[in-house]
Amino acid sequence: MLTILSAAAMAASLTTATCEDLASFPLENAKVVSAQAVPEGVFQNPASNRPNQDTDPIPAHCRLTLKLTPTSDSLINAELWLPMDNWNGRFMAMGNGGWAGSIQGFREMQPALRRGYATAGSDNGHSAADGPGGMFALGHPEKIVDFAYRSIHDMTVKSKRLITEAYSQPADYSYFKGCSTGGRQAMMAAQRYPGDFDGIIAGALANRHIYMHTAGSYRRLQLARNPEMAIPEDTAAMVNQALMAKCDVLKEGFLNDPRQCNFDFATLQCPVGTSNASCLTSPQLAMVEQYYGGLHNSDGELIFSGQTLGNPLPAMLSQPESPMGSSDSIRILGFQNADYDMNDFDLDRDMPIIDATTGFIDSVNPDLRAFKAHGGKLFLYAGWRDTAITPVNTVFYYDSVLTEMGQEQDDWMRLFMVPGMGHCRGGDGPHDFDSITVLEQWREQGNAPDQIMARNPESGLSRPLCAHPAASRYDGSGDLADSANWSCEITP
User: 191-202 burial string, b = 16+ CB within 10 Å, else e?
Assistant: First the structure.
């Protein structure tokens, strides 16, 4: 640690002249568009008219805007922020969400800069000018590659070169942080470019992008083709009430560990010849069981995992696809046809075609031996209350790595499931925790995390997050909101 700190201290500052000189630094198939020394102050996203949610000032930094063109059909916009003072010797790249299309990493780059990190984010290879949703991919195969994996890698390579030039030495450690699409990007980096990062924080994995979007679109098709499967709001409320009445034994409003509950939805089925909001018809039961059990093809193969028990069943009515919806992964990415009629889609026939065409977007390879050999540490997390991307999918990938590489992998990979947390953040559970410090101490000092203290800043609730498959268990007495009354245990 002394060597690391000494190296960082020697490279702790930049001058305005040094920052501005970076504008002329030559990069292969890339250009530094601007290099500006920015004084300390509150950040305002240049691409947004909305006020910044983070009102704390960020330190003075050298702000570099980059255009990366790895191919003639590529245009990746990125930003790299370099601390003017007190650089900590580290680099952190940030991921995106949804379809990307803008530098969404600004939210996470601000706290990283306050920690002393050099930090970067990109638009993942396309912008609003390329159209909404997946329209950027129509007729642009190289942009699909950029979206799949090349943008983050190219941004990382160029950022490291600029860091070395700015501080006259490379970063001691390089990290990545991403959630949702950023979780897919994180796993893609570990799988395709295992030397890019020394540690990765990956949340709410959208790593099965194609299959996830197909499953979402197919559910809408089912409801349109079979209106008898629709779940009205009052029927959904009945299901949720019955499920929580059995499973929420602590009466917290969320399930601390959904794995500890089993529920037979067939007990809610209507008697033959009846139909009302207090029970499920056979078609409705099939839809509910699919929602929680996952979508399978006619051969029983899983297309995408179902939702976790305790996460509310939404009303399911026939409705049109949103303009930026998941069908773009079928009609644009899969079939390159903006006029594709989704009514023609057949799951058994067309899913293999889409997978063969664009399956490389999904980061599902469980062989992470090269990342492990590099010394990489993988911090996985997901919220048990995530209704945007089922948390079961993150557990599914974690288990696939253990199946591929053996059951004892906790020296370099750990998964933390967060009770009551929604998609990436928020919710009624203990969703505020310091993953960056945990990763630093794990990678740089060898302190593997068995549990992490987390809290809910709104309610004050605190609870330990436990390395999966362990989970926090209430000791049986005392305040449920006090972490002192909880401990990590593995339940058989």
Answer: bbbbebbbbbbb
- CA nearest neighbour of 400 among 425, 428, 424, 365: 365
| pTM value surpassing 0.85 | yes
**Alpha helices of 226-310 — where are they, by DSSP H?**
233-247, 282-293
The pair of structure tokens assigned to 59 is: 């330190």
Which residues are bridge partners to 418 per DSSP? Answer: 383
Cα 470 to Cα 453: distance, rounded to the nearest angstrom: 14
How far is 285 from 19, CA to CA, in rounded Å?
Answer: 62
347-358 vs 209-225: helix axis angle to the nearest 10? 160
Any idea how long the chain is?
A: 492
Give the pLDDT of residue 7: 46
- pLDDT 10s digits, 33-61: 999 999 999 998 877 666 677 889 999 99
HSE at residue 122, side-chain half, CA atoms within 13 A, is 31
Dist. CA 193–CA 93, nearest whole Å:
14
Domains and CATH numbers, the chain: 2-207+362-489 (3.40.50.1820), 211-360 (no CATH)
Tell me the pLDDT band of 3, cut-offs 50, 70 and 90. Answer: very low
Strands 451-455, 462-466: pairing kind: antiparallel
Query: CA of 203: how far to CAs of 246, 286, 393, 430, in Å?
Result: 29, 30, 11, 15
pLDDT in tens, 316-335: 997 766 555 799 999 999 99
Report the Cα–Cα distance between both ends of the chain, in Å, rounded: 40
SS3 14: coil
pLDDT digits (tens, 9 = 90+) for 434-477: 999 999 999 999 999 999 999 999 999 999 999 999 999 999 99
Per residue in 266-282, is it b (16+ CB within 10 Å) or e — as a string?
Answer: eebbeeeeeeeeebbbe
